[in-house]
Specification:
heterodimer; A: mainly alpha; MetI-like fold; 14 helices; 0% strand; B: mainly alpha
């Protein structure tokens, strides 16, 4: 048989030619090669790991207890013997409290953001898919919640409930789902008119199946992007609320309420204010950078 | 144009009622009952308490309580023959306390007529308390807008012109930093820097030197405004510069700008006369959200710098569980927010005839 012209002849194996990268693979590739986003990601991973390991680190490595006051040894400076970052106004080890505080602050923001996205996706896809009266009601509710300054709303809710960490997650999620709803609702409007939705419907798929199996995966990339920014925003909100004394309450440490000693603390031991403050800023900064990086990576208009 | 404004005003009505519903039902979930707050006297008998509870209507279904809070109860029961006892009523039984005699007419006017009840701590009309503190908050917010809007817009224009250059890069980093540093940390940093004893240039808090009879006019106490304004402005500068940069980039790549360039206009004329002017239009929509975030941000800054504004009144009332003042601040704050969104929409319509359909 004479040689048939084949693609392998010019040096490209056939099976490699066919295989194209999915949107997700392309995005992951771009993120992997984006140095700034990767740095931010590594910092977040380190901070999260340290926070998760807080009990181990403070018991085994630092050999201190984060909640045991020692009034003879308060306001120790940075580098004091046995206390790397000094002690606070009640003589508790500052580093250990920062680790546990990270657990609380990061945990609240993370779970609240996840819950908010779940609520937001469900409401958004239902409202965008069915339209009509349901959509009108959702839009009215969203506009209303948006018109109350969110810190005011948070303040009255926590005044009424005086929340612990768990109810704070619920409260923040209850107020944080609007952004995701807006995104998903808008996308659903266009996706429900596409051919693949029509195909699914003509094959007898139920409304719920079309919404959650066919439409939601198509907005997943948008959700991942908004998740990172949402976590950052929620860390700021939680810290503001705890700083004012209406979020996580002492003695449970959070990065926000460790700052709430305010100006008196600032005069006596500025590091007690600035270390948690810088940790909040650094975490939020990295999360925003990751959000920006993901937005670029998932942008189909940028091709490589 | 008038048509547009009227339509937007009508759209604001359901939003307003939504706000009253949400805030009322949140507060209604609060523990503690108003009867025990109103009757401090431990010798008040159980019967009297029950009678008071019936008069206040605390045992009624919640939607009825909400309606009374909203529109008052003076018109629900009224007294036609002028003997001080009601003889006609809607929604409420004439003899709520069950003592066999018709009750005197209600006295509450409802929040729609400005009756938020009486502050538990100050023993005054909450609206009066807010009215006293509103000028301070508005003063701080206007000072912040005057700093952050021009600065942010300038930075945004320059960053778009020098896209990808070092100015653009540093402006972007600064914008993310401005977004991620909490305003209270910013405030503490400023206090650390300017509050050092050797460097005692600026006052660290308050709105003026403590004198009797209120503060002097604003131009005599500008130094008190400096630190709170800076602390509040940085987030705004970040937001405005980012938004302006995006809008400017959009106009720079549009057809009419290419035409202007093809005509042979100088870069400067194209940037500032053609691009920047059109890029400013969508900025109007950003005024509303800015106003909202300023109200929230001011709460924290007012608390730190002991600025006698509405935000500090709110945090104090939340600590004291002073519900009438909390409700009044939330409703007034939301009304201001709705107004802010309304004004920014109208401005947008004024500047951009395309959306006036």
């Amino acid at each position: 048989m004479t040689a048939q012209p084949s693609i392998t002849k010019i040096g490209i194996p056939l099976h490699e030619e066919i295989r194209t990268k999915s949107l997700l693979q392309k995005a992951l590739y771009r993120v992997w090669h984006d140095r700034l986003t990767m740095t931010a990601l590594i910092i977040i991973v380190i901070l999260t790991t340290l926070a998760i390991l807080a009990p181990f680190i403070s018991n085994q490595i630092l050999q201190v207890e984060y909640d045991k006051p020692d009034l003879r040894n308060n306001y120790a400076p940075i580098g004091a013997p046995g206390h790397i970052l000094g002690t606070d106004d009640l003589g508790r080890d500052h580093l250990a409290r920062l680790l546990y505080g990270g657990q609380v602050s990061l945990g609240i923001a993370f779970f609240a953001a996840i819950l908010a996205i779940i609520i937001g996706v469900t409401v958004g896809v239902i409202s965008g898919y069915y339209g009509g009266f349901i959509d009108d009601f959702v839009i009215w509710f969203i506009t209303t919640l948006d018109s109350i300054p969110s810190l005011f709303l948070l303040l009255i809710i926590s005044a009424v409930l005086s929340p612990g960490p768990f109810s704070l997650v619920l409260i923040l999620a209850f107020l944080g789902w609007i952004g995701a709803t807006r995104i998903v609702r808008g996308e659903t409007f266009s996706l429900r008119e596409r051919d693949f939705t029509l195909a699914a419907r003509s094959m007898g798929a139920s409304d719920w199946r079309i919404m959650f199996v066919h439409i939601v995966p198509n907005v997943a990339s948008l959700l991942i992007i908004s998740l990172t920014s949402a976590i950052g925003g929620l860390i700021l909100t939680e810290s503001a609320l705890s700083f004012l004394g209406f979020g996580v309450k002492a003695p449970t440490p959070s990065w926000g309420n460790m700052l709430s000693g305010g100006i008196d603390l600032l005069r006596r031991a500025p590091h007690l204010i600035f270390v948690p403050g810088i940790l909040i800023s650094l975490t939020v900064f990295c999360l925003y950078l990751i959000g920006d990086g993901l937005r670029d990576a998932f942008d189909p208009r940028i091709s490589d | 144009m008038n048509h547009f404004i009227i339509r937007r005003l009508i759209q604001a009505i359901p939003t307003f009622f939504g706000i009253t519903i949400i805030s009322y039902f949140i507060i209604a979930a609060a523990p503690g009952d108003p009867v025990s707050i109103l009757t401090f006297n431990p010798r008040t008998s159980m019967e009297e308490r029950q009678r008071l509870a019936a008069r206040l209507g605390v045992n009624d279904p919640i939607y009825l309580q909400y309606l009374r809070w909203l529109v008052g109860d003076d018109w629900m029961r009224w007294d036609t023959d002028g003997d001080g006892l009601s003889d006609r009523s809607i929604l409420i039984p004439l003899d709520a306390d069950g003592d066999g005699e018709p009750d005197p007419p209600g006295e509450r006017l409802g929040i729609l007529r400005g009756d938020f009840g009486r502050s538990f701590t100050y023993r005054e009309n909450p609206l009066k308390l807010i009215g006293e503190r509103l000028p301070a908050t508005i003063e701080l917010n206007i000072a912040t807008l005057l700093i952050s809007v021009p600065l942010g817009i300038t930075i945004g224009i320059l960053a778009a012109i020098w896209r990808g250059k070092s100015f653009d890069q540093s402006a972007r980093v600064l914008a993310v930093v401005g977004d991620s540093v909490p305003s209270f940390l910013m405030a503490f940093g400023l206090i650390m820097i300017f509050g050092a004893p050797t460097f005692n240039l600026l006052p660290m808090g308050g709105m003026c030197a403590p004198v009797r009879g209120g503060c002097p006019p604003i131009y005599q106490r500008l130094e008190y405004l400096v630190l709170p304004t800076i602390a509040l402005s940085l987030g705004g500068i970040a937001g405005w510069s980012r938004f302006m940069r995006a809008a400017m980039l959009e106009t720079i790549t549009s057809d009419y700008v290419r035409t202007a360039k093809a005509k042979g206009l100088s870069n400067r004329a194209v940037w500032f006369r053609h691009s920047a002017r059109n890029a400013l239009i969508p900025m109007a929509t950003f005024l509303g959200p800015t106003f909202v975030s300023l109200l929230g941000g001011a709460t924290i800054i007012e608390t730190i710098f002991s600025w006698p504004g509405v935000g500090r009144l709110l945090t104090q009332s939340v600590s004291a569980q002073d519900y009438p003042v909390i409700m009044a601040s939330v409703v007034i704050g939301s009304v201001l927010t709705i107004l802010g969104f309304l004004i920014s929409d109208i401005l947008y319509a004024v500047f951009d005839p395309r959306i006036r359909l």
